[in-house]
Design goal:
- There is one protein chain.
- The protein has about 325 residues and is of the alpha/beta class.
- About 35% of the residues lie in helices and about 25% in strands.
- It folds into 3 domains: about 55 residues, Orthogonal Bundle (Arc Repressor Mutant, subunit A), CATH 1.10.10.10; about 130 residues, Rossmann fold, CATH 3.40.50.2300; about 120 residues, Response regulator (Rossmann fold, 3-Layer(aba) Sandwich), CATH 3.40.50.
- A 6-stranded parallel beta sheet has the order 4-3-5-6-7-13. Strands 9-8-10-11-12-14 form a 6-stranded mixed beta sheet, sandwiched between helices.
- The radius of gyration is 25 Å and the shape is elongated.
- The termini are far apart.
Length: about 325
């Protein structure tokens, strides 16, 4: 219990700890039990007690030479499992590669909208979470001692570091690329509601209004995770709207379906990782080269100010 408290507070060697009476007042243990625990910690060399001054940490046993870092995804979002999803597969492989190469331990797991395995997270030094949406119950996050980092998400009011993908410039580049000819854009918006989903849609509309407001735009809601085989609505929208560009949340199977049926007359730009095909592309090695050092730094200094980091995607035409 004491290690959990001190780990959460980010105490380092030399830090002063609570008095035995303060510990008793904040837990269910008796004074005799607390006195014995503190004596045992002193005998083990974990704390140093100075008469009239208090007790101080000498070592931090919970801080090992290497860290245990977990990556957890939302199974309610990635319904078929993470390795059935090219986007998340590339992300987890990049994180694992970086963590293991740096000499740390990697753990992979999942959660769902209703419950998070915080009892597992308490045994880890840091967890990286992805797939949190407006349906996800995030109350459990407040109780874990593990350092939490959020991938591609900001949550206002939550004390977590965030690493977000920025698609503002790629949208601008896409519209700028089409200025010389009249174009019709069909944006595929995800029905999985989240702040990042809304931010991406907003970035698309802002780029349209600022760069090419005369071009025609339509929006179609899709489920790119569990609705990959349900393409009737998508193909009907293409037949009706007759877009020159289909972009946004494009499942990898839809790209070939669209281009095979329309003889490459329609350009398709989706959100992709590590691809040389047209789209809004993120290089995972570069991204993790930003993310992991920040996580390590924050582990070394748990009292550091919270930061929201942004990694810019690139437009490949």
């Amino acid at each position: 219990m004491l290690f959990r408290r001190w780990k959460t507070e980010g105490l380092e060697p030399g830090a002063k700890i609570e008095s035995q009476n303060e510990i008793v007042n904040s837990c269910d243990f008796s004074l005799i039990t607390v006195i014995k625990a503190l004596k045992d910690l002193e005998a083990e060399g974990v704390i140093r007690r100075q008469v009239g001054k208090g007790s101080y940490l000498v070592t931090t046993p919970w801080a090992e030479a290497h860290w245990r870092i977990g990556f957890f995804y939302n199974r309610d979002v990635v319904g078929g499992g993470i390795f059935n999803n090219a986007f998340y597969t590339r992300m987890v492989v990049a994180i694992e590669k970086g963590v293991v190469s740096d000499g740390h331990e990697f753990v992979l797991g999942s959660f769902n909208h209703d419950a998070m395995p915080t009892y597992i997270w308490d045994s880890l030094d840091a967890v990286i979470l992805t797939g949190i949406t407006d349906e996800t119950n995030t109350e459990g996050l407040k109780g874990t001692t593990s350092q939490v980092s959020l991938i591609d998400l900001f949550i206002d009011g939550m004390p977590f570091h965030s690493f977000r993908l920025d698609f503002a410039k790629p949208f601008v580049d896409m519209f700028r690329d089409g200025l010389e000819r009249s174009r019709r854009y069909l944006y595929l918006d995800s029905e999985i509601i989240s702040r990042e989903q809304a931010a991406r849609r907003s970035g698309f509309h802002e780029a349209h209004q600022s760069l090419d407001p005369t071009s025609q735009v339509a929006v179609l809601t899709v489920n790119q995770e569990v609705g990959a085989d349900k393409t009737d609505g998508l193909m009907a929208a293409i037949e009706e709207f007759k877009p020159d560009v289909v972009c946004g949340y494009v499942h990898r199977n839809w790209r070939d379906l669209i281009q095979d049926r329309y003889s490459n007359k329609i350009q398709v730009y989706g959100y992709v990782l590590d691809s040389e095909r047209p789209g809004f592309v993120v290089k995972t090695d570069e991204w993790m080269g930003q993310v992991l050092p920040e996580i390590y730094q924050n582990l070394a200094n748990r009292r550091s100010d919270l930061e929201h980091h942004v990694y810019p995607a690139k437009f490949i035409r």
